[in-house]
Amino acid sequence: MMREHSFTPVIRRILSDEFGSVSEQILRQSDLVQYINVKTVSASRGSKARGSFGNLYAIYVLVEDYINRGFHVSEDYEDAEGARFSDLFKRQRELPFGSKLQNHALNHRLNQEFRKYFPISGAQPILRDNESHQYWINEHLLKVEIEGQEHNIAEAIIRIIDAYIDAKQESFHSFIRDCERMQSISDESPKEVVDFIASLLRPNVDARLFEIVSFAILKAHYGDKAIFWGWELDRIEEERLVLYKTGRTNANDGGIDFVMRPLGRFFQVTETLDVRKYFLDIDKVQKYPITFVVKAEMDVSEIQQAIREQAKDQYPVRAIIKRYMECIEEIINTPILIARLQKVVQAGGLNTVIEEIVKHSRVEFNLAV
Fold first, then answer.
1. Which secondary-structure segment (H or E) carries 90?
2. C-alpha angle with apex 209: 207 to 212, nearest 5 degrees?
3. Is 128 left (phi over 0), alpha (psi -120 to 50) or beta?
4. Beta-carbon neighbour count of residue 368 at 10 Å?
């Protein structure tokens, strides 16, 4: 049975505009429309909800190519050359929120997830020729037969995904407006601002926002601290700690998320307690110590124990486990982040945290001025 949510009426309205009295039957019969319904559940949950663009955009660019070449009104798609991967990938990245998308959806992720939701469908959305790097949308999923009449839903699919994009853009603009309002009241109502920032650290928040907010808090936290160092004893200098954000937010790009100067500390942000993630990150930097910022309410000792117990299952050699665990320099969980935010507030740095959140959110969500 199809899951109803707040964006489902938008899908219904678009189908009704396109197909009139048979729109409900198309909604019930089309696996592709029902899949898109699943993927658009975050449309009206605000910017804090994780958006779903990768798989939707894979559908979008292939259907768009199909329409642009006129196949939605012709019958010869089965003999057509496929779209080139490079063109599809470029187009994905031109779409709102698409600038950092990877190639996974086009290559396997969409088909894999579609099979999970529709195991008996027998159709997968993307067809591809690995040798020629050509891609096709599965036309069977674009044609729905109702009472002997065939209806092509390609244009409706584009309209539905466009409506989802519009809804997400508005929610992110609303989020930026909320942040800017927090900036304006940070002096008079610091508790309201702190509560707003703390809400961005909750478990259901988009991982990109968690990373941005974590960075803003930690940058302010370390920013009022300094070390004294130098190359000669009689020439010791004071230098403040500075945290730098590196790479792409919440991207599987093999990078380290934050780096601190002049101490050279590495920080990695994660949502998981999977030991493979932690040890892989440690291996990336040849067992250089890493501080993990973990989106979790669990106590630090519980997180460490969970990692250690999983490690015992995978590495039956104590020396190996010990070596990896020693590379976990520190674990910073959500309660620690909130505690550090409170200290930043006491030191008068609340507005700098909000400024960092606004700056990086504008860039991350393609809202940069």
1. helix 85-94
2. 110
3. beta
4. 10
> What does pTM read for this prediction?
0.75
Structure tokens at 113: 């997830």
Return all residues near 57 (Cβ < 8 A) that are at least 6 apart.
92, 95, 98, 101, 105, 161
Partners of 128 in the β-ladder: 135
Quick check: helix, strand or coil at residue 296?
coil
Residues 266 and 264: their CA atoms lie apart, in Å, by 7
The amino acid that residue 65 corresponds to is: D
Give all strands (DSSP E) within 64-148, no chain letters.
83-84, 126-129, 134-137, 143-146
Rounded to the nearest 5 degrees, what angle is found at the Cα of 35, between the Cα atoms of 29 and 38? 120
Structural domains in the chain, sorted by start = 8-167 (no CATH), 186-364 (3.40.1350)
Taking a C-beta distance cutoff of 8 angstroms, is the pair 157, 143 a contact? no
| DSSP, residue by residue, 227-248 | EEE-SSTT--EEEE-EEEE-S-
Measured CA to CA in angstroms, residue 336 lies from 106, 298, 341 at distances of 39, 11, 8
| Contact predicate 308/347, CB 8 Å | no
- Give the integer Cα–Cα distance in Å for 284 and 254: 7
Mean pLDDT of the chain: 90
CA 165 to chain CA centroid, Å, is 15
Bridge partners of residue 227, in order along the sequence: 239
Please return the burial class of 338, using the count of CB atoms within 10 Å of its CB with bins 0-12, 13-18 and 19+. middle
pLDDT of 302-322, one tens digit each?
999 999 999 999 888 999 999
How many other CB atoms are found less than 10 A from the CB of residue 88? 24
Contact 93, 99 (CB under 8 A): yes
Structure tokens at 193: 């601002």
Q: Give the sign of the dihedral formed by CA 183, CA 186, CA 189, CA 195.
A: positive
Cis peptide before 262 (omega within 30 of 0): yes
Could you tell me if 290 and 266 are in contact, meaning their C-beta atoms sit under 8 angstroms apart?
A: yes
Q: Express each pLDDT in 122-148 by its tens digit.
A: 899 999 998 898 999 999 999 999 999
